[in-house]
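Fresh eyes needed here. Kindly weigh in on this sequence plus structure tokens:
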Amino acid sequence: MMELTGTCPECETKLAVSDLTVGETFTCPECVLTLRINAVEDGVLVLEMVEKQLRDWGQ
């Protein structure tokens, strides 16, 4: 499988993945942000930050 590259939209770390597809999520190893692969354009990942929903315990 071809290695895909991209840049974290938060910390600008260069990323490379080979076993993920559009719609999947992964964690940036540098800033630990959850990222979703929105598209792949010419082998380059189009990434979006995923908002983590924290549980609201009514506090």
The chain has a mean pLDDT of 88. The chain has one domain: 4-49. DSSP finds no helices and five strands in the chain.
